[in-house]
């Protein structure tokens, strides 16, 4: 079943993170343990635009890397509901996580470089459900850019030309169903 066929009603819980923690062990430093995230708890409902905010070093990227399966989880759970099934991403094998990424979860690195001369709206629309018509994908992209408070006058520009908003456009290229990343540098915009 494709993501489009499994669309959740607006407001339905899609992600629940509970007590998430990550500790790195520095083996070349005598086994020193470095806790980088302790007890993160939040949830995301279908249709929400969520921002992880906080100062540099607070663990925002580490949380997202745990959600996407790039980092292992030291403690806690990451419950993802997709197509009527709920799974704890913290317990999945690498092969199972790859299947989740194919079907239900995508991420875009904060260091992504935009394709030169491609308008921001087209980059965001490229991440839409492939079953949508080009017009519907563009409409969906426009709605997301509005929710991110990116002024419409910037939508036709390549994201690299509007510093500070570039990351907001990038974060939604592949997060149509589950937007959870915050722009780097703490440039988050609150909903009115």
Can you characterise this structure?
Helix content is 23%, strand content 21%. It is built from 5 helices and 4 strands, in the order ββαββαααα. The protein has a 4-stranded antiparallel sheet with strand order 2-1-3-4, with helices on one face. A hairpin with a 5-residue loop joins β1 and β2 (32-45). The radius of gyration is 17 Å and the shape is globular. Mean pLDDT is 76; it is low at 161-192.
What does this entry show, briefly?
This protein has 192 residues and is an alpha+beta fold.
Question: Which descriptors apply to this entry?
Answer:
alpha+beta; four-stranded antiparallel β-sheet; globular; disordered C terminus
- The Rg value, from CA coordinates, equals 17 Å
Low-confidence stretches: 161-192
Strand order of the largest sheet: 2-1-3-4
Overall shape? globular
What integer is the average pLDDT?
A: 76
The H/E string reads: EEHEEHHHH
């Amino acid at each position: 079943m494709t993501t489009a066929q499994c669309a959740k009603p607006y407001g339905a819980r899609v992600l629940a993170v509970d007590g998430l923690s990550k500790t790195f062990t520095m083996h070349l430093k005598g086994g020193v343990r470095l806790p980088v995230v302790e007890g993160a708890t939040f949830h995301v409902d279908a249709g929400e635009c969520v921002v992880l905010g906080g100062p540099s070093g607070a663990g925002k990227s580490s949380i997202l890397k745990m959600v996407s399966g790039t980092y292992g989880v030291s403690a806690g759970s990451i419950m993802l509901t997709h197509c009527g099934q709920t799974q704890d991403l913290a317990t999945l094998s690498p092969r199972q996580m790859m299947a989740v990424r194919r079907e239900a979860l995508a991420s875009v690195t904060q260091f992504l470089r935009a394709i030169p001369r491609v308008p921001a709206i087209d980059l965001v629309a490229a991440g839409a459900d492939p079953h949508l018509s080009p017009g519907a994908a563009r409409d969906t992209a426009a709605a997301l850019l509005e929710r991110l408070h990116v002024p419409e006058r910037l939508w036709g520009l390549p994201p690299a030309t509007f510093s500070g908003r570039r990351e907001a456009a990038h974060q939604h290229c592949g997060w149509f169903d589950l937007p959870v990343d915050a722009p780097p540098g703490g440039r988050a915009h609150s909903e009115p």
